[in-house]
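Appendix B. Raw example, untouched.
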Amino acid sequence: MFTTTAEVDDDTLFVVRPHWKHLVRPALALFATVAATGFLAALTPPDAARGWIQPAVLLAGLAVLVRWSVAPWLAWLGTLYSVAADRLTVRTGTLTREIRVVPFARVEDVLIEHESFVDRMLGAGTVVLVPVGDREQLELPGLPHVVRLQSELLMLVERAADRRRKQVAPPDPEPL
């Protein structure tokens, strides 16, 4: 279900990337762009307008390819959720890196949301971490196996809550 990578800490239990469904549109854009660019470049006569049209078509195809295929793939590749026994670490970005660490001691509940019927069929959805107090909820969109992930996270949140209660519990009275 979950994979591990060398990028995470030694105490990491599991690592989750966004669902593969986020790569369907970039893959379709790749095939459509290559086909359209090749077709348009083949239609252009080599001597048309002193030979600048064909390179312009190829350059436009490359720009579309980078924007609609490469950039989403890099965004998917750069997003990583690693879960340790006491915290969730969210890593995003490829060129610039943003890391957010959420201790489970500050989480009250874990909710899941399915955006569509297709998401339910694929087992994908959004995991929402509800914090203790008035803090803002953390949404982790487009994750695979959300039901199983929710149960794993709830177990870790409960363990953190038990540790928090034990630390706050009043000391035992001294015997007389």
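End of appendix B.
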